[in-house]
Design a protein that fits this description.
By secondary structure, the chain is of the alpha/beta class. It contains eleven helices and 17 strands. It starts with 5 loop residues before the first strand and ends in a 28-residue tail after the last strand. This is Ornithine decarboxylase.
């Protein structure tokens, strides 16, 4: 509702659980719009299984700018024709393997204030786009659009304004060179939940709508976005068991059955903050009076690594082995990157249909 011109293409990497992908695929197929941002063979296959092979071509943008040969060939075999590039060697690869692909040029942005910057790795500088477009034209390739990403978890108001101005400049150059530009991909960066002092979804939406009206007014232009955490963050909670307790005058240490090698990897890779959990004992939630006064404590994960620390100052009441901690909004960039370190399997998933 707040972005009426923009189709969401869910960033599968954020949480690739089939329940999330299938729920969104159902919505997209029912409503006629929407799709998925994929970055690998496995993600393409996951989406194809959800939407059907016959729909994968129009429901997927292969947004990884630097792809393995096998991934390009797999995308072609699946009918996924929209692929992203940001360098000349990728163009040479695509000219050989998939010459009739529909290409999007990814443009670098200022994402210095994002939770997870991406422009240090991907995106062509605007001053190099003219030469890249000339190279694509010399190879006989079709460039149909521009993409960018303001960084995952963008807290900066105005980031989309600058990125859209850069995209407009590249659109103009591409059209000058004779390319028919039909697609604009504004990437992700939308928050999973609004936070005080940071740009909200409504803030970003207002900027995007204003700039689209000013710079890209044509209703014939298809505009898509790649939200991940916006959809996934609140869709999953984490229920963690207390497996051991070490009491100390300096603050108790609690050992949990998941840690930074599991779903709490988000503390490292996503620069996330640990949400305050609810406490369950004997199958029910403890109230504040029953739980007792909180005190700073340390939370460790289950591995034999001292680095596996979730928090060193979280205020919690006295816990016991067998208690459970329910952490909310743990759906974005958590279980997606969990490992098998120490032979400890990733957390099991329980799916609840709340319709």
């Amino acid at each position: 509702r707040q972005l009426p011109r923009v189709e969401p293409f869910y960033a599968v990497k954020c949480n690739p659980h089939p329940a999330v992908v299938n729920a969104l695929a159902f919505q997209w197929l029912q409503r006629g719009g929407g799709g998925f941002d994929c970055a690998s063979i496995a993600e393409i296959d996951l989406v194809a299984a959800a939407v059907g092979d016959e729909h994968a071509g129009d429901r997927v943008v292969f947004a990884n700018p630097c792809k393995q040969t096998s991934a390009v060939l797999h995308a072609r075999a699946k009918g996924v024709r929209r692929l992203v590039f940001d360098n000349a060697s990728e163009l040479n690869k695509l000219a050989e393997l998939f010459p009739d692909a529909e290409l999007l040029l990814r443009v670098q942005t200022d994402d210095s204030l994002a939770q997870c910057p991406l422009s240090n790795k991907f995106g062509a500088a605007t001053e190099s786009c003219e030469a890249l477009l000339e190279h694509a034209r010399a190879l006989g390739l079709r460039v149909v659009g521009v993409s960018f990403h303001v960084g995952s978890g963008c807290s900066q108001r105005g980031a989309f304004r600058g990125a859209l101005r850069r995209a407009r400049a590249v659109f103009d150059e591409a059209e000058r060179q004779g390319f028919a530009m039909t697609l604009l991909d504004i990437g992700g960066g939308f928050p999973g939940a609004d936070a005080a002092g940071q740009a909200t979804f409504a803030d970003h939406a207002a900027d995007i709508n204003e700039m689209l009206e000013e710079l890209f007014p044509s209703p014939d232009l298809r505009v898509i976005a790649e939200p991940g955490r916006f959809f996934a963050a609140a869709a999953q909670a984490m229920l963690v068991g207390v497996i051991s307790v070490a009491e100390s005058s300096a603050g108790d240490r609690y050992y949990l059955n998941d840690g930074v090698y599991g779903a709490f990897n988000c503390l490292l890779y996503d620069h996330a903050a640990v949400p305050q959990p609810r406490i369950l004992r004997g199958g029910r939630e403890l109230g504040e009076l029953e739980a007792g006064p909180p005190a700073p404590c340390t939370l460790f994960g289950p591995t034999c690594d001292g680095f596996d620390k979730i928090s060193d100052a979280m205020p919690l009441p006295k816990l016991r082995p067998g208690d459970w901690l329910l952490f909310p909004e743990m759906g974005a960039y958590t279980s997606a990157a969990a490992t098998m370190f120490n032979g400890l399997p990733p957390a099991a998933h329980f799916v609840y249909d709340c319709r």
